[in-house]
Amino acid sequence: MSFGIDDLPVRDELRGKSPYGAPQLDVPVRLNTNENPYPLPEPLVERITERVREAARDLNRYPDRDAVQLRTELAKYLTKTGDHPLSIENVWAANGSNEVIQQLLQTFGGPGRSAIGFEPSYSMHALISRGTGTRWISGPRDEDFTLDVEAASAAIAEHKPDVVFITTPNNPTGNAVPPETVLALYEAAQTAKAATAGAIVVVDEAYIEFSHGASLLPLLEGRPNLVVSRTMSKAFGAAGLRLGYLAAHPAVVDAVQLVRLPYHLSAITQATALAALEHTDTLLKYVEQLKAERDRLVAELRAAGFEVTESDANFVQFGRFEEPHAVWQKILDRGVLVRDNGVPGFLRVSAGTPEENDAFLDAVREVKKELDA
Ligand code: PMP
Question: Could you report the per-residue pLDDT of 130-141, keeping only the tens digit for each?
Answer without folding.
Answer: 999 999 999 999
